[in-house]
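Dear colleague,

Following up on yesterday's call, I've attached the two folding results inline so they're easy to grep. Please treat them as preliminary; we haven't cross-checked anything against experimental data yet. The first protein's sequence and structure tokens come first.
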Amino acid sequence: MVTCRDVNNLDLDGVELLTGEVGLDRVVSWTYFVQTKPYEDHMNPGNFALIVVDYLRFDIEKTFETMVELNALGISGLAISIVDDREKIPQKMIDKAVELKLPLFYVRWEGATSWILHRVSGS
């Protein structure tokens, strides 16, 4: 069984836990790349969600709203990557993740070699 703590302990280059230490023992059942609504048709409890802020499908405000919606669906954790590292995760989002006890990770865009990040963003 894999948990968000295991994901954090991988100490992956460019991946940083921003908050949500109290939720690190949530079990990860699958990875879900957030793209298509309605999310409940594609999401399962325990999914570890990844959102790419690409400024087409998602901007920061839409990402905040989606984080709250996905948490209600039972995600185990959330990772956010912002195209070209244009902006930081806002404190409002970090504070909400604390309130939700949701592990919130930031994935640096620059230098990320995963083809998945590029495919998700459409580039």
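Below is the second protein, in the same order (sequence, then structure):
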Amino acid sequence: MHDFREPEVVLRAHVDAWLGQLSGLDLADYDGWAAYLSAAHERLCALHGLEPGHIKGGGAVSSVGMAAYEGADGGLEVALHFLGHAEILTAMGLMIDSPSACC
């Protein structure tokens, strides 16, 4: 399904619904989406004992990291893909890499 809202509107919905609560970060404290997504990823890495910048594996933290990477390049629509994936994994309790996500 394609969401026809502007990317910033959908990103805001992700922040309000789950990412802000999960990371404990407020979007207002950051200068743009790229900075916020990067900070959220780093916070989640720290909270889950992962190396900074962790994007390996199939967990939600890795997906947020990929969203941050894409957001830094201005690819907000691609970042949304990764955030959608992260939201589903978060709901399933798969925050970090799961054994079934191995290579």
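For the second protein, one point worth flagging: Residues 7-23 form the longest helix (17 residues).

Best wishes,
A.L.
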